[in-house]
Amino acid sequence: MHRGERRAKRPNVVWSVFVFLVASAVAGALTAGLALPFAGLVGVTTAKAHDSVQYLPQDLETAPLAQKSIIQDADGRVIATLYQQNRTPVTLKQISPIMLKAIVAIEDDRFYEHGALDFKGTLRALLRNQSAGGVQQGGSSITQQYVKQSLINKARTPEEVKEATADTYERKVAELRYAIAVEKQMTKGQILNGYLNLAFFGDRSYGVDAAAWHYFGVHAAKLNLPQAAMLAGIVKNPNGYDPIDNPKRAKARRDVVLRRMQELNIITAKQAQDAIKTPVLNPAAVKVIPNGCANSKYPFFCEYVMAKLKENNAFGKTKEERENYIETSGLVIRTSLDQKAQKAAETSIAEHSKPTDDVIGAVTMVEPGTGLVKAMAQSRPYGAKKGQTAYNYNVEKSYPGGFGGFQNGSTMKAFTIAAAIARGVPTTYRIRSPQTISLGGKTFETCKGPISVASYNPKNSTKTVLDPSMVDAARASTNTYFLQLSQQIGLCPIATIADQLGMYDAQELKPLKQVISYTLGSAGNVTPLMLSNAYATFAARGMYCSPQVITSVTSLKTGKQIPTPGPNCHRVLSPGVADGVNYVLQQVMAKGGTGAKLKFGKSDLAGKTGTTDENKAVWFAGYSTRLAAASVVADADPRLENIINQTFNGKTLHDASGSGTAGPIWEAAMQLALQGLPSTKFVKADDKIIRGNVKDLPYLKGMTPADAAAKLLSMGFKAQMDHGARVDSDAPNGTVAWTNPRQEDGAPAGSTVTLFISNGSKAKPTPPPVTPPTPPVPPATIKPPPNIPTCPPWDPRFPKCKRG
């Protein structure tokens, strides 16, 4: 016979349990765990009854109560609540005495008189239910209800929940057996306390304290009579007696509780009547506890915190286990969010963009020397409506909400500057950098060997001097300079530093590709968080700290901290190299630099603009010693297109640049975040960093190439000819016009000096010889003697000159 068929022939469960109780009361079978001699009276054999009891565990194993966790900002203010069950466990002393009396009165008024089973109460309930033709009164004691709630709380799968709530003979018997064990293990007060912390009070409120706070805005210790009566009445049918959706039914049920308390002489008739006259609920007092990051004030930051929490193996072996632990274990998660900086970022975004724009704006702010992520804001808010998004444009694609970044253009030049300075290249180093150069066939050394492309003709987007120094090239963001510099020092040193500063492809979560145009930001997609944190390393004088959004995790129950990754800071650049980078990027903010319009206040500021090919994204990244930030304006809708002719801040963009489009977001955010703080200065770069460890170069202009080369060799340098066309110069044709490095800049010992040969086009013509004028003959003051000629007869200018 199938199991389902056996169940179908069973008598009514309530009736079976009733007779089971009678038999048990007589035989003491539940306590002893023996067979039930009278079970046959209800059509259940002694063997079946014995099987239902004999093998049940003696002790009830309970699971920890699921309770809500909270996420806080850096100052301890709650920014998000996480829970599967909104619960705050409390002790018996933290529950109002009237609440304890109300729940006992309506659920089990003989609670303190009977043991695990209330035979009289069950019989009374059974008789009432039978006469009414339905279930009008429950027969379970508070101990039995505690057992049932504990088994449900322990269930971890839908199957276990179904088994714990099944309307079957076996479950009822199991609960009775467990109830006996509980009564032996716990006091009445402990059972009542456990029950009130477990019970569901409707509208996502579990436990009496969460319910009191939700419905009345008070904690359980402050509940008054009508409030306690309402909560006591809810537990029988939390959905049916919900005071928000069903206020009339809730009031009627509350009043039943009050009358029962009067019947039991717990309260007087006057107290009951006064309580009945009060409204069941004050809607203004209801406090909704938002659940999850979607309901947080900072949903994107919150989701990023959750993503990082789920990476912590201390919370479980799998992401699912970790998520369950985080949402049920009552954790206090302190984060790095600084509400002043966050407000500054949000204000700036609101001033410079609109949610309905075609393109997006985003900015992240990081503290140098700690890696603490202070703020994160973007133009499209969280949601699924028009102008909303679930993507976080500030972070990597490490979880479903991470967008995965954008190409970052010339902001990558900062890493080329760092690598060059680290290799001893002075900031005065000049390279001839015309508007367009040909790099086809040129070899670039990567960490895996040389690479080249057949054809590549990059150009500058800004104008600069023909032979800029590193500072000049940074100020004007000269592409042709930095491409040649990256070829000379190699891509591997640049990529190594970028990697050490936390730069990787945020879309693929792999290292950036070492391509020829690496220094122009086409090696992969990066994020504002990634870039701001990398630039923060320069501000911290070479101390890199991995980005940190979680500063501590503490258990609400024990008060103990749970291990979580803390600050991870280590030196990747020498202070001198970082000072050199700061010196160069500070000039970008000076007059004539691409970031000059973004300079504010008295603090030293450094930064770099960035624009990608076809203007799909524009950037500005910059910092003071206190704060670093990176802002981006980009097309975030596939397929990604040029942002020019798309709307931004409600207007069509006719031009786009790092300084003019993304820069104002950075400027306003930084200015507001630093407002009121003392100004700061960078450490002055060493002269050897600025000029390099150089020797003086000889003056070679106008010398023949052979003589100039010989001179250089004699001083310990190497010489090479520039094989391009001769250059315009005022030096004689075929002689040295200038050198690279320049004579005034000097060059490191043993370095190669390139000789540029003049075409003489600006040379001054040789002037004709000038005959000095003949001095005039002064008039004689003494009469010459006779026969002395008055003119020089040997002078051919005087042919008629004769002696006197």
Automatic annotation (TrEMBL):
Organism in which the protein naturally occurs: Kribbella karoonensis
Protein name: Transglycosylase domain-containing protein
Pro residues bias spans: 765-796
Catalytic activity: [GlcNAc-(1->4)-Mur2Ac(oyl-L-Ala-gamma-D-Glu-L-Lys-D-Ala-D-Ala)](n)-di-trans,octa-cis-undecaprenyl diphosphate + beta-D-GlcNAc-(1->4)-Mur2Ac(oyl-L-Ala-gamma-D-Glu-L-Lys-D-Ala-D-Ala)-di-trans,octa-cis-undecaprenyl diphosphate = [GlcNAc-(1->4)-Mur2Ac(oyl-L-Ala-gamma-D-Glu-L-Lys-D-Ala-D-Ala)](n+1)-di-trans,octa-cis-undecaprenyl diphosphate + di-trans,octa-cis-undecaprenyl diphosphate + H(+); Preferential cleavage: (Ac)2-L-Lys-D-Ala-|-D-Ala. Also transpeptidation of peptidyl-alanyl moieties that are N-acyl substituents of D-alanine
Domain PASTA: from-to ranges: 692-759
Sequence ranges of Polar residues compositional bias: 751-761
Coiled-coil blocks: none
Residue ranges crossing the lipid bilayer per the database entry: 12-36
Keyword match Protease: yes
UniProt keywords, alphabetically: Carboxypeptidase, Glycosyltransferase, Hydrolase, Membrane, Multifunctional enzyme, Protease, Transferase, Transmembrane, Transmembrane helix
Domain of life: Bacteria
Xref: InterPro entries: Beta-lactam/transpept-like (IPR012338), Glyco_trans_51 (IPR001264), Glycosyltr_51/Transpeptidase (IPR050396), Lysozyme-like_dom_sf (IPR023346), PASTA_dom (IPR005543), PBP_transglycosylase (IPR036950), PCN-bd_Tpept (IPR001460)
Region (Disordered): 724-804
